[in-house]
UniProtKB/TrEMBL annotation:
Protein species of origin: Colletotrichum kahawae
Domain of life: Eukaryota
Protein name as annotated: Uncharacterized protein
């Protein structure tokens, strides 16, 4: 599923702006935001990032010690009930109700 929670949506958009992007990129040009950067820390501190980190911390006995190393961000502007969207991303002015924003966290063993 995509990000519909407005505070996380805004944090990610602001992080992309600060990283020098002109719009939310589509999958082909997806943004890779490294952790330990201001933008990466902001995304990790969002509800969606913190939830992922908390899950890894709580399950390290089963999963082993993991580290989130980057957030991959992309989106598109849907048409026709979410189908056939613009694969080139969307403008920063879009709202969570009108755009599909995705975050994929890259996790590695420590």
């Amino acid at each position: 599923t995509h990000i519909t929670y407005s505070p996380t949506f805004r944090i990610v958009v602001d992080a992309l702006k600060e990283a020098g992007y002109k719009r939310v990129p589509g999958w082909k040009d997806r943004a890779v935001i490294k952790m330990a950067t201001r933008q990466g820390d902001a995304i990790l501190g969002s509800t969606h990032g913190a939830g992922t980190a908390w899950m890894l911390i709580q399950h390290k006995d089963v999963l082993g010690v993991k580290e989130i190393v980057e957030a991959v961000v992309w989106g598109y502007q849907p048409r026709l009930m979410g189908l056939f969207g613009n694969a080139d991303g969307f403008k920063f002015t879009a709202s969570p109700d009108s755009a599909v924003l995705n975050i994929r966290f890259t996790i590695r063993n420590v």
